[in-house]
Amino acid sequence: MRLDKFISQSLGITRKEAKQLLRQRLINVGGVAVCAPEQHVDDKSNVTFDGRTLQTPGPLYFMLNKPEGYICATKDCRHPTVLDLLDEPRAHTLHPVGRLDLDTTGLVLLSSDGQWSHGITSPKRHKTKRYRAHLAEPLISGVEEKFEKGIMLDGEKKRTLPARLKRITPTEVELCIKEGRYHQVKRMFAAVGNAVTALHREAIGPLNLDHDLAPGDYRTLNSDEVDSLR
Ligand code: URA
């Protein structure tokens, strides 16, 4: 890993701050003061600052109950991002695992572990996502079967994978899908002449949104929860 990244992760500071420490010649590698941010180091390199050996801390994993109005991105010039909800020293190392629309609420995972995130979002892995949706019109009969068979979304060439639809009330449903196409849930209901008026993600794979988390709250995932999504 690059030295500036190593220092930034280890001390919980930004890359810019890490580069400043290097410029000030406050970082030693193998006992020698160094200044090149691009220098390659690993866990065996003896990197020290202020007389102490630096180590990269482990990756971070969080679940968040996303409120409306926040965007699933690390930066945005128009809207606050889900990272703005986190009061964490290493928040700048995190990314949202997949996306929910600006107006969708519910379970969002955040991590600094790119490989773990890829395993969850990769289209090849088919991780089930469970949503609760409110509809503009009462659900007509036969939609469950259509979703189970897979439907053609506007502008696409491949049917959706089988999805499980459960009616809760005439205008409230639970939907489990195994893909993450663009605006997929809203487009699936549009394809059967309905519209989603509110959408909430309740679960990803075996991991349910913690009921104790109010909108905007988050917590660390424990190691069993992290492993359950590998
Ligand atoms: N499907 C949608 O249409 N929107 C989301 O935010 C998630 C899934």
Verbal overview:
- By secondary structure, the chain is α+β, with helices and mostly antiparallel strands.
- The protein folds into three domains: 3-53, Structural Genomics Hypothetical 15.5 Kd Protein In mrcA-pckA Intergenic Region, Chain A; 58-124 and 209-230, Pseudouridine synthase I, catalytic domain, N-terminal subdomain (Alpha-Beta Plaits, 2-Layer Sandwich); 128-204, Alpha-Beta Plaits (2-Layer Sandwich), CATH 3.30.70.
- Helix content is 20%, strand content 26%.
- The protein has six helices and 13 strands.
- It has helices at 3-11, 15-23, 114-121, 143-149, 184-191, 223-228, and strands spanning 27-29, 32-33, 47-49, 52-53, 61-66, 95-97, 105-111, 129-135, 164-169, 172-177, 196-204, 207-208, 218-220.
- The strands form two sheets. Strands 5, 6, 7, 8, 9, 10, 11, 12 and 13 form a nine-stranded mixed β-sheet that branches. The protein has a four-stranded antiparallel β-sheet with strand order 2-1-3-4, with no helix packed on it.
- It is elongated.
- The protein starts with a helix and ends with a helix.
- The mean pLDDT is 95.
- The structure holds uracil.
- Residues 100-101, 104, 183-186, 199 line the site of uracil.
